[in-house]
Each structure stands twice: as C-alpha cells, then as structure tokens.
C-alpha cells in the first residue's frame, strides 16, 4: 500500500501523522513537475534543496518509506519539458539523490500520454537511471478504462520495455470513466484484469503470478470528477480481489481527502459519508 499524498495541499500534510492515523507505512508523494527542464515540486519548491526531506526521514525512522511521483494531471512532466535524454536523466537523478529514493513513479496522463517522443526520451532516461542506481524500482501510472489501458498507454509501457526499463508496476488510475451508471468497484476489478491481459501480450514469457504482481490499481476515493462514486463497499471488493490475485500494489487518490472526511471541493473532500481515515484502514488490510 502506497496511497498518494498531495504534497501541495495546505497545510503541508504530515506524513508521520497520516501514517499513524491511517495504519499505513508508505506513501506516493505527488507531484514533481517541471519549470523549463528543471525538476520542481508542483512549481513551488526545488527538490535539490531536499524540501520535505525531514518528513521522509521521520517516516523511514518509523519503518515506512516513500516513492516520489513525477507528472500528474497538472503541470508538465519532465519528459516533455526536457529535449534530450541527458538533460532528462540529470533531473531524475538529482531527485533520486536528494531523497535517497528506492522507488520512483511516473504519472503519465493528459497530453503526456500521447507524446511518443517524450515517452521514448523518458524510457531511455529511466533505463539509464536504473543503471546508475542499481535496485531502483520504477512504476508507470496510467489512465485506464474497464477494457484496459488506452492504445497510447500501452505504447508507454512498450516504450519502457523496449528501452530496457525493469518496470516494477503498471499502476492504473481506476477513476473518472465518464460513463453513466458505472459501478466503480466492478470497473476497478475489470480494469485490473484487462491490464493484466495487456501486460501478458507485452511480456509473454512472464508467469501469471508475475503479471499480477506487475499490476497495481489506484481508485479515486468517494466522488470522482465525473460524479461517479467509489465507496467503502467498492474498497472492500477491490481489496478482496487484490488478495485473491496477489496484485503488486493498491493505492488511492488521495490521503488528505480521506483524512478530511468532508463534503466540499473534490480536491480536499470525498463527499461520501465516512469517518476520517476509513478508506486508509480498509486498504491497509491488503498486505500482498
């Protein structure tokens, strides 16, 4: 379990407090974007200064860890902003060194997912990054439909494979389908199954168990942007499915929304009846 934390929320979330209250150990920190071809935390802070490092150190001291996520729905991912593999590698490498990262995530959506040139640059830079940091794990987080990744999403995974990136996870954003009457629990399960089948086509030599371990699912808690709802029953359904198939990871968007347990703007509220950290505790039951 490594749910997303919007590090741009105000006040800045306390990772140690979120972990203790939600019965969690690890988080995905969102998002590093770009100002020109320079890494930045949501266009506000320079990762090279180690912004937030004390929070990460405190979480690690308590037995947890983080992955840093590059990209997201807002701002420009570095793969699009940097015109050369060398420049792109330098930015990724700086962030990995600043936080002594063992895991990095790349949330590729919007215009980024269709930018084949940027995706190939990123793939080449990530292969180089893994050579520079042996053991560094990499995940791709991509939009999904119940039928699986889009054609462009499959192309992102194929690009990484062909560049020699050792992908730990393909994490699908099981949210915002924009389909009336859709069941968000059923469709999270369908999306995972469909993505696993697509990964089989890309990696035919991998076993079924290895393909499930490569599959991760990230729903949006409560009300989605399309006004569909992922509720507590859906969370239980997804956790049961993950246990049955031993998925590589479950995550969700996003911790402060779960902590706030409120009705209001979707950037900070789930708009469903819940207690604080209720979803976190449901998802924490999944241990692989």
From TrEMBL:
It comes from Kitasatospora camelliae. SUPFAM superfamilies: (Trans)glycosidases. It comes from the Bacteria. CDD domains: GH18_PF-ChiA-like. PANTHER family: BIFUNCTIONAL CHITINASE/LYSOZYME-RELATED, GH18 DOMAIN-CONTAINING PROTEIN-RELATED. Signal peptide: none annotated. This is Chitinase.
């Amino acid at each position: 379990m490594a749910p997303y934390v919007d590090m741009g929320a105000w006040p800045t979330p306390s990772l140690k407090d979120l972990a203790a209250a939600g019965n969690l150990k690890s988080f995905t920190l969102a998002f590093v974007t770009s100002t020109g071809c320079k890494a930045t935390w949501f266009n506000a802070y320079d990762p090279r200064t180690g912004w937030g490092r004390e929070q990460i150190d405190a979480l690690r001291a308590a037995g947890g860890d983080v992955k840093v996520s590059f990209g997201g729905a807002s701002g420009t991912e570095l793969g699009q902003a940097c015109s050369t593999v060398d420049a792109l590698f330098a930015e990724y490498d700086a962030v990995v060194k600043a936080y002594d990262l063992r895991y990095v995530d790349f949330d590729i959506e919007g215009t980024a997912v269709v930018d084949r040139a940027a995706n190939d640059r990123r793939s080449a830079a990530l292969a180089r990054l893994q050579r520079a940091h042996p053991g560094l794990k990499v995940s791709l987080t991509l939009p999904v439909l119940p039928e699986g990744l889009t054609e462009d999403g499959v192309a992102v995974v194929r690009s990484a494979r062909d560049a020699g990136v050792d992908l730990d996870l393909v994490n699908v954003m099981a949210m915002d389908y924009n389909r009336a009457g859709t069941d968000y629990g059923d469709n999270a399960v369908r999306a995972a199954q469909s993505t696993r089948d697509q990964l089989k086509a890309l990696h035919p030599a991998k076993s079924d168990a290895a393909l499930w371990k490569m599959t991760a699912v990230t729903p949006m808690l409560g009300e989605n942007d399309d006004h569909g709802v992922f509720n507590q029953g859906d969370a239980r359904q997804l956790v049961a499915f993950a246990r049955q198939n031993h998925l590589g990871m479950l995550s969700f968007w996003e911790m402060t929304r779960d902590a706030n347990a409120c009705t209001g703007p979707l950037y900070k509220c789930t708009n469903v009846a819940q207690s604080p950290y209720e979803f976190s505790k449901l998802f924490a039951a999944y241990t692989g």
